[in-house]
């Protein structure tokens, strides 16, 4: 199998990419739907974490180790420590606010989420 075959591509903004690169972040959280469903997100699947869409020089490869679904950010943080998703957050409320900002979730809005733990390849 060649690298990239049957992988899921996950574009990241600057900060989340740096958190994965440093090893501080191990969970990615996304709105549930489209390519972020059980059909595409499952343990054992290869993942390509890239800084943005086009910067192929900033790519991390890994494997999905675990998947969790939730109906809200609060429920997700009951299952997964917030610091594994947003390592710079001061507390759970701060992490929830940052997730809402990153995912574009309006205040008072609940959306289903899927999170996946990534074991980044060591080089």
Q: What does this protein look like?
A:
The protein has helices at residues 14-22, 73-79, 92-103, and strands at 7-12, 27-31, 46-51, 59-70, 113-120. The model has no long low-confidence stretch (mean pLDDT 93). It is 23% helix and 30% strand. Strands 1-3-4-5-2 form a 5-stranded mixed sheet. It has a single domain, classed as Roll (Archaeosine Trna-guanine Transglycosylase, Chain: A, domain 4), CATH 2.30.130.30. A hairpin with a 7-residue loop joins strand 3 and strand 4 (59-70). With 123 residues, it is of the alpha+beta class.
Count of DSSP H/I helices: 3
**Element order, helices and strands?**
EHEEEHHE
| CATH homologous superfamily placement | Hypothetical protein
Please tell me what the overall shape is. globular
What is the fold named in CATH at topology level? Answer: Archaeosine Trna-guanine Transglycosylase, Chain: A, domain 4
Radius of gyration: 14 Å
* Proportion of residues in extended strands: 25-35%
Percent of residues in helices: 10-25%
Distance between the termini: 19 Å
Beta strand count: 5
Mean pLDDT: 93
Q: Which secondary-structure class do the elements indicate?
A: alpha+beta
Largest sheet: 5 strands, mixed
- Please state the second-level CATH architecture: Roll
| Arrangement of strands in the largest sheet | 1-3-4-5-2
Main CATH class: Mainly Beta
